[in-house]
Write a structure and sequence with these properties.
This protein has 95 residues and is mostly helical. Helix 1 crosses helix 2 (42-58) and helix 1 packs across helix 3. The termini are far apart. The protein has one domain (10-94). The protein is 57% helix and 11% strand. 23% of the residues are buried.
């Protein structure tokens, strides 16, 4: 069966609709909100989503997405400007 259109996932937060290509991004978005990421600046929340998703998609292990998202959220200020491999290395060293 051929899919003619790619699915699109949306979330509404503070009256704004956000669209995502993957359901996993919506899950990360929710986790970020739950952890207080970007509560004053939504663009920071989207930055968090992009970084966690990049880590998740590039990881060759079967990483638990919720654990990874929480890990990055709890250490956001120190991990925000790190690369995905550095973040994953720290995550696995502390896991």
């Amino acid at each position: 069966m051929k899919i003619l259109e790619e699915p699109q996932f949306t979330a509404t937060y503070k009256g704004t609709v956000y669209s995502f290509q993957y359901g996993s991004e919506v899950y990360i978005f929710h986790t970020g909100i739950y952890n207080g990421i970007g509560s004053r600046k939504p663009e920071i929340l989207l930055e968090y989503v992009a970084l966690v998703h990049e880590c998740y998609m590039s990881d060759s292990n079967r990483t638990n997405l919720g654990d990874l998202a929480d890990y990055v959220a709890e250490r956001w200020k120190t991990l925000r400007n790190k690369g995905r491999y550095e973040i994953l290395e720290k995550y696995y060293m502390e896991a």
